[in-house]
């Protein structure tokens, strides 16, 4: 017979956990990281940003991005590498703060 204990235990274990199973602290950390990533991407040119996002988020190969953008694979590599270096520099500087 159901006496409510199971429901009470569920409420206690999920208290303070967001819709996707993250705590408020985890949400705050995720949002802070997102803002940092966006700050780095804001320092990039539109071309660098779009090529990097196609590579990093959409999973396209350098050759596929080259065809899509009408440029060489080397040009795509240089854009992606430039953004990657900006991320490395940003986070290395954050560690030294």
UniProtKB/TrEMBL annotation:
One Pfam family linked to the record: UPF0122
Coiled-coil region list: none
InterPro entries: RNA_pol_sigma_r3/r4-like (IPR013324), UPF0122 (IPR007394), WH-like_DNA-bd_sf (IPR036388)
Family: Belongs to the UPF0122 family.
Function: Might take part in the signal recognition particle (SRP) pathway. This is inferred from the conservation of its genetic proximity to ftsY/ffh. May be a regulatory protein.
Record-given protein name: Sigma-70 family RNA polymerase sigma factor
Organism of derivation: Mediterraneibacter gnavus (Ruminococcus gnavus)
């Amino acid at each position: 017979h159901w006496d409510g204990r199971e429901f009470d235990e569920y409420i206690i274990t999920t208290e303070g956990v967001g819709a996707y199973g993250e705590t408020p602290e985890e949400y705050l950390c995720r949002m802070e990281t997102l803002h940092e990533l966006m700050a780095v991407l804001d320092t990039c040119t539109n071309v660098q940003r779009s090529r990097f996002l196609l590579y990093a988020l959409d999973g396209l190969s350098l050759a596929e991005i080259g065809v899509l953008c009408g440029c060489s694979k080397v040009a795509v590599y240089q854009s992606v590498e430039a953004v990657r270096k900006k991320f490395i520099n940003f986070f290395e500087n954050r560690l030294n703060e």
